[in-house]
C-alpha cells in the first residue's frame, strides 16, 4: 500500500511546517500564553532528601507587597484524593504534594508562593523558612545497595526472563564475568516544565502546559480533584522538548491548579532549571552483572542480573533487560532485574529508557567477547544475528539489521580498521574505531483524526496529539497532502488541544506511525467521499467515472484528461466545508485498545504481539581521537544506518536520528548526575556543571535511514519511530572505540579523563 498515487512528500525531504513560526517567535509555548489577571507562582523545593517538616515560617514572605499567599502541607482544604494509578502516566510519582509533612525525596515540592508579579513571588520565596527533622537518606543506587534495607529491593516477576538452561551451560564452561554501570541522567529539554491554570467556576479548568500526554492532566485532575475529565481542557500546541519527563503529571501542576482555585485567579508557574533536576524525574542509575559462556567462539549461555534505581515509593523500571533479552541468537538466557528504592525521587523514562542504558553493557560485552573469540566485532554480531526473536520465538515484523551493518560499515570505511588496540594513529593522536548495534521496540497505538476541506481549498487536519519537537506537524501535513493531492502549504495541522480527536501519549516513538496512520485514514476517507460526490454529480466532469479510476493531484481529482477541483466539488454540494473523522485500531491490536483510548487511557500494543516481534534496528560506527598525553577522548566521526520502516520525511527523520546519536555522545562522555553523599542533594543541577556536548564536541555525524522497507505489521503507513533508536548503542560504540584507541576498557559511563589516565 502506498499513501497515494504519487508520493510528493512522504519519504521525501521537506521543511518543517512549524519552522517559520518557531523562528519568528510566533509559536506560543505554554508559559507564553497571554492570560488576563495572571498571578505568578514560585515553587519551593525540599532541601533534605528524607525527613519531616517541623517548621514553616511564612509571615515575612506574606508581608512582601503583592504576595497573595503561601501554600504548603499546612494549607487547609488542599486535600487531594489519593487514587491508585494516579497521577496518570507511564511513570511518575504517586506521592501527592502538600498532603503531609513527610519528605521522601530531594527536591520534593514543599511550598508555593503566589504573588501579583514574578519578582514579588521570587523575593518572598527567599523569605520562607522551612525546618526539617532529617532522617537517614539513601540518595543513590550505590548508597542504597550498600546500606539500604532488603525491603527496599524488589525483583518483579515481569522483569524476569529465562530460556533454555543457562545455569547448566555456565557450569560446564569457562565463564566470562563482567559488570557495567550507567549513572543517573537528567532530562533537560530547552523548555522548562510550566503550567498556567485558569478556572471557570469550580468545576472547569483550562491547563496550559507542555506535555507529551494531554490525557494525563485530564485523568489526574479528574481523579484527585473529583472533576469530569471533559471539564479539564488541556492546551499544549508547542512543546520545547520532552524526552519522557513530560509524559505524566507532576506535583507542581497539582499545586498550581489548587492555588488558582483558591485565589479564583489564573496562576502561572515555571520551574527553574535546578527544579528540572529534581521533581520531574530522571533516568535511573543501573548496574548490570553478566556471566557468559563462550564455546567455539560463540555465546552458548548468558546470565544477566541487573540492579536499577527507582523512587521512594514508585517502582518504575529502567528496563535494562529489553535489549539483552532479545538482540542476539542465544538459546540459553537468564535475566533478572532488582529495583532499588532511593530518596533521589521518582524516576521516569528518558529517551530510550532501558534500551539506552541496558545496551551499554551488552554492546561493550559483545566487543569484549568478540576480542576473546578473535573475531571482528561486526562479524561477531553477524554470527549472532537472530533470524527470529529469541525472546518470544516469533518472526520479526521486518528486520534489515544486516543491511544496516553493511551500509554503515561501508560509509564509515570499517574495512580499513586494524584490530590491535593503539594501532591506528594520526600523528601522535590515537585513533579508535568502534561499533555497536542499535534496537528499539515498536509500540503502536489506537489513534483518531479528522480531515476537513474548506471552501478556499485549505485542508485542516485535527488530532489531539503532540509535537514535542520531533516534527509531528510536518509529517502529518505531508501525509494529508499526498493523500489528497494538494500542496503541503495548503494543509494546516492542529495538535495539542484535548478537545481535538483523542490520541495516546507521545512517547516510546509511537506517534509517527500511529497518529500518522489515523491522519492517513481520515484524509483518504475525505478524498473517497469527495470522489463519491463528483462521480454522482451530473455537473461534474467526472460524472459516471468509476471511483477506482480517479487520481488526486494539484488540488484536483483526475480521470484521464477529465478533472474536477476539490473546491468545485465542495461548492456544488452547497456546503462550505466537508469533514471526515476516522479512528483506527492499532496494528497488532483491536477494538480493546481503541475503547481504552476513548476512555482516556493509552490504547497501545506492546512491541511483541501474538504474531510478530516488532523492533527498529540500526548499526552505529564511531571514530574517536584521543590525545596520548592528556587522554581526552573526542568523537570525530559517527555513522549510523537505521531500519525504521517507511521514512515519512527524510529531513525530520535524519534530525531525530542525528539527535539520538549526539545524545549518545553525551551519555558516553558527559552526562552524570553527581550526588553529595553528605546531604544527599544533587551537586550539579545546572547546565554549567551537568555537562552536555556543545557544537565543538561533535564532529561529523551521518545518519542513514534505509529505504524500501515499509513495515505494515506496525502501522498502515509502514512507518516505525525514529526518535529513540539513535541513542541506543552509541555510548557503547564510543566506549569500544576508546578501547580500540587506548587499550583501556571502561565499563561505566561517563568515560571521563580520570578513568583513562
Ligand atoms: Mo520517550 S523516553 O518515550 O519520551
Q: Looking at this structure, what is the CATH superfamily of the largest domain? A: Aldehyde oxidase/xanthine dehydrogenase, molybdopterin binding domain
Low-pLDDT stretches are: none
Question: What do the pLDDT scores average to?
Answer: 96
Q: What strand line-up does the widest sheet have?
A: 3-5-1-13-10-11-12
Helix segment tally: 19
Strand content: 15-25%
Distance between the termini: 56 Å
- For this structure, the CATH topology of the largest domain is Aldehyde Oxidoreductase, domain 4
In the CATH hierarchy, the architecture of the largest domain is 2-Layer Sandwich
Rg is 27 Å
- List all distinct small molecules, including ions and cofactors, that are bound in this structure: dioxothiomolybdenum(VI) ion
User: For the record, what CATH class of the largest domain applies?
Assistant: Alpha Beta
Number of strands: 30
Quick recap of the structure?
It comes from Deinococcus rufus. Helix content is 26%, strand content 25%. By secondary structure, the protein is an alpha+beta fold.
Amino acid at each position: 500500500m502506498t499513501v497515494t498515487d504519487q508520493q510528493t512528500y512522504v519519504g521525501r525531504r521537506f521543511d518543517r511546517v512549524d519552522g517559520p513560526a518557531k523562528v519568528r517567535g510566533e509559536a506560543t509555548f505554554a508559559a507564553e500564553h497571554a492570560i488576563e489577571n495572571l498571578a505568578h507562582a514560585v515553587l519551593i523545593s525540599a532541601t533534605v532528601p528524607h525527613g519531616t517538616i517541623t517548621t514553616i515560617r511564612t509571615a515575612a514572605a506574606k508581608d512582601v507587597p503583592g504576595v497573595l499567599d503561601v501554600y504548603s502541607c499546612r494549607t487547609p482544604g488542599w486535600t487531594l484524593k489519593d487514587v491508585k494509578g494516579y497521577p496518570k502516566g507511564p511513570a511518575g510519582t504517586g506521592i501527592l504534594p502538600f498532603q503531609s509533612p513527610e519528605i521522601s525525596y530531594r527536591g520534593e515540592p514543599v511550598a508555593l508562593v503566589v504573588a501579583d508579579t514574578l519578582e514579588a513571588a521570587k523575593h518572598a520565596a527567599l523569605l520562607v523558612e522551612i525546618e526539617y527533622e532529617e532522617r537517614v537518606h539513601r540518595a543513590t543506587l550505590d548508597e542504597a545497595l550498600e546500606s539500604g534495607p532488603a525491603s527496599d529491593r524488589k525483583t518483579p516477576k515481569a522483569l524476569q526472563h529465562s530460556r533454555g538452561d543457562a545455569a547448566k551451560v555456565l557450569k560446564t564452561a569457562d565463564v566470562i564475568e563482567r559488570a557495567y554501570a550507567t549513572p543517573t541522567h537528567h532530562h533537560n529539554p530547552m523548555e522548562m516544565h510550566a503550567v498556567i491554570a485558569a478556572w471557570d467556576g469550580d468545576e472547569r479548568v483550562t491547563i496550559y502546559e507542555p506535555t507529551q500526554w494531554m490525557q494525563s492532566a485530564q485523568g489526574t485532575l479528574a481523579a484527585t480533584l473529583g472533576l469530569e475529565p471533559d471539564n479539564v481542557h488541556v492546551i499544549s500546541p508547542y512543546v520545547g522538548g520532552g524526552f519522557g519527563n513530560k509524559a505524566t503529571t507532576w506535583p507542581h501542576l497539582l499545586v498550581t491548579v489548587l492555588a488558582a482555585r483558591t485565589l479564583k485567579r489564573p496562576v502561572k508557574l515555571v520551574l527553574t532549571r535546578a527544579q528540572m533536576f529534581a521533581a520531574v524525574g530522571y533516568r535511573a542509575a543501573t548496574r548490570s552483572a553478566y556471566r557468559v559462556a563462550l564455546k567455539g567462539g560463540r555465546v552458548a549461555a548468558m546470565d544477566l542480573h541487573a540492579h536499577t534505581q527507582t523512587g521512594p515509593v514508585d517502582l518504575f523500571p529502567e528496563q535494562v533487560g529489553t535489549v539483552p533479552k532479545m538482540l542476539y541468537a542465544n538459546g540459553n538466557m537468564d535475566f533478572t532485574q532488582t529495583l532499588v528504592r532511593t530518596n533521589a525521587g521518582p524516576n521516569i523514562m528518558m529517551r530510550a529508557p532501558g534500551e539506552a542504558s541496558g545496551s551499554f553493557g551488552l554492546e561493550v560485552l559483545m566487543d569484549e567477547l568478540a576480542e576473546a573469540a578473535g573475531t571482528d566485532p561486526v562479524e561477531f554480531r553477524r554470527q549472532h544475528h537472530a533470524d527470529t526473536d529469541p525472546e518470544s520465538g516469533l518472526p520479526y515484523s521486518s528486520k534489515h539489521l544486516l543491511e544496516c551493518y553493511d551500509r554503515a560499515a561501508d560509509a564509515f570505511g570499517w574495512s580499513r580498521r586494524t584490530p590491535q588496540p593503539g594501532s591506528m594513529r594520526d600523528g601522535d593522536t590515537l585513533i579508535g574505531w568502534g561499533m555497536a548495534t542499535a534496537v528499539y521496540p515498536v509500540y503502536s497505538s489506537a489513534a483518531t483524526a479528522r480531515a476537513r476541506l474548506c471552501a478556499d481549498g485549505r485542508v485542516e487536519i485535527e488530532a489531539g496529539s503532540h509535537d514535542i519537537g520531533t516534527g509531528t506537524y510536518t509529517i502529518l501535513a505531508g501525509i494529508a497532502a499526498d493523500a489528497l493531492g494538494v500542496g503541503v502549504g495548503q494543509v494546516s495541522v492542529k495538535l495539542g488541544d484535548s478537545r481535538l480527536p483523542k490520541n495516546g501519549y507521545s512517547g516510546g516513538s509511537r506517534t509517527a506511525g500511529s497518529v500518522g496512520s489515523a491522519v492517513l485514514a481520515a484524509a483518504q476517507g475525505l478524498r473517497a467521499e469527495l470522489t463519491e460526490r463528483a462521480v454522482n454529480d451530473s455537473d461534474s466532469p467526472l460524472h459516471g467515472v468509476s471511483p477506482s479510476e480517479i487520481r488526486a493531484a494539484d488540488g484536483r481529482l483526475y480521470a484521464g484528461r477529465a478533472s474536477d477541483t476539490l473546491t468545485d466539488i465542495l461548492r456544488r454540494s452547497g456546503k462550505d466545508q466537508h469533514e471526515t473523522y476516522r479512528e483506527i485500531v492499532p496494528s497488532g491490536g483491536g477494538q480493546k485498545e481503541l475503547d481504552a483510548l476513548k476512555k482516556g487511557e493509552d490504547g497501545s500494543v506492546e512491541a511483541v504481539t501474538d504474531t510478530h516481534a516488532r523492533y527498529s534496528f540500526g548499526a552505529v560506527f564511531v571514530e574517536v581521537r584521543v590525545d596520548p598525553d592528556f587522554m581526552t577522548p573526542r568523537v570525530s566521526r559517527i555513522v549510523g544506518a537505521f531500519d525504521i520502516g517507511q521514512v515519512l520525511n527524510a529531513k525530520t527523520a535524519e534530525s531525530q536520528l542525528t539527535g539520538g546519536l549526539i545524545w549518545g555522545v553525551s551519555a558516553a562522555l558527559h552526562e552524570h548526575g553527581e550526588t553529595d553523599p553528605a546531604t544527599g542533594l544533587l551537586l550539579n543541577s545546572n547546565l554549567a556543571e551537568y555537562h552536555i556536548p556543545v557544537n565543538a564536541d561533535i564532529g561529523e555525524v551521518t545518519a542513514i535511514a534505509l529505504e524500501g522497507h515499509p513495515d505494515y505489521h506496525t502501522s498502515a503507513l509502514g512507518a516505525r519511530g525514529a526518535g529513540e533508536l539513535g541513542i541506543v548503542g552509541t555510548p557503547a560504540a564510543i566506549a569500544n572505540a576508546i578501547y580500540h584507541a587506548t587499550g583501556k576498557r571502561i565499563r561505566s559511563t561517563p568515560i571521563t579523563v580520570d578513568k583513562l589516565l
